[in-house]
Amino acid sequence: EVxxxxxxxxxxxPGGSLRLSCAASGFTFSRSYMYWVRQAPGKGLExxxxxxxxxxxxxxxxxxxxxxxxxxxxxxxxxxxxxxxLKTEDTAVYYCVTDPQDPPRGQGTQxxxxx
Length: 115
Hints:
Layout: E1 3-7, E2 10-12, E3 18-25, E4 34-39, E5 45-51, E6 58-60, E7 68-73, E8 78-83, E9 92-97, E10 109-113
Parallel strand pairs: 2-10
Antiparallel strand pairs: 1-3, 3-8, 4-5, 4-9, 5-6, 7-8, 9-10
């Protein structure tokens, strides 16, 4: 059974940084694309970033490009999202998923950007 546990969220001022982490289990992590998606209050899920199994391919939504960096550690089955220059519009619950077409399996981690 696929299991993911997200962590690292919190309250931060605009312009600040946070690093999200996701611990995954129950599947062959090292062979799987991993994604971060987010859901802002009152809105649907939004794809944020993806990373290929070997980290050679990384992609970002235009809204976060240049500010967020995705990475992974296949030895530890973890995927991370470094978020810099945070904006109020980044406020959302962030989830890591193995398939952005499926509902998130984890509980997510809340990121609130506010002064």
